[in-house]
Specification:
Layout lengths: L6 E5 L4 E5 L4 E5 L4 E5 L4 E3 L5 E8 L2 E8 L11 E3 L5 E3 L3
């Protein structure tokens, strides 16, 4: 999906969801899934053994925060957004 505030969802093992545009959401459910948002202020979640990526700005530099399910406290099927200094934090739905 594309455009500000867009939403993408996919389900099933190995599925992928991607959105572009600011304030977009991407969600994938199932095992080994991937969700990516190519826009600022996005939210993402992925299933077991999955991963997700969110953009953020470090001053003027664009960066990507990566969440790996099961690492650094990142939970499956939970919405995340980028907080201060690029740290992933749980987001309200």
């Amino acid at each position: 999906s594309s455009g500000d505030y867009s939403k993408a969802a996919s389900s099933g093992d190995g599925s992928t969801a991607a959105s572009s545009g600011d304030y977009s959401k991407a969600a994938s459910s199932g095992e080994q899934t991937i969700a990516m948002v190519a826009g600022l202020h996005g939210r993402a979640k992925a299933g077991q053994l999955g991963a997700f990526a969110l953009l953020w700005l470090d001053g003027k530099q664009v960066r990507i925060a990566i969440g790996i399910i099961g690492e650094a406290g990142i939970k499956a099927d939970t919405w995340y957004q980028v907080g201060e200094a690029g740290k992933l934090v749980e987001a309200k739905e």
